[in-house]
Amino acid sequence: MKKITALFLIFYVFSCADVDKSSEPENLFSKDKMAAVLTDLYVVEGAISSNKAAYLKTGIKPSSYIYDKHKIDSISFKDNLDFYTDRIEDYLIIIDKVQANLKALQDSLTNRQEIINKEKQKVFPKNQSTNSIKITKKAKTKKKV
Q1: pLDDT in tens, 95-118
Q2: Which residue in 3, 38, 88, 128 is a FRET match for 10, CA 20 to 30 A apart?
Q3: What does 91-144 look like in DSSP terms, one character per residue?
């Protein structure tokens, strides 16, 4: 049994030895550019998944939007993605930048929402707010027969 296990272990080690990495693309994106592209990709995908009906009404194609915004094409994006995913250290740096970008967007949106809420309070002070108006119903009296 030990011989069979050792044989499989040796076979496994040698089978993984010749894994080739992707070659460097002609138009290699910087890590910052790759992080920006992936950030936009995650934002668009999140928007689509949160409200698919609104997305379908717009008729916007997410891939075209991202490619146009960053002035890239699908082939260069795929080549760069393959290149960076084969180099895990670089890819982890890119993913950390993507997470930082998404966090910054989230913080910006939170701050914006707080400003909007403060403006609403100025327009509708709490004592005049539509939420504070109470509608009372007169109690119905039942006549006993």
Answers
A1: 999 999 999 999 999 999 999 988
A2: 88
A3: HHHHHHHHHHHHHHHHHHHHHHHHHHHHHHHHHS-GGG-GGG-----PPPPPPP
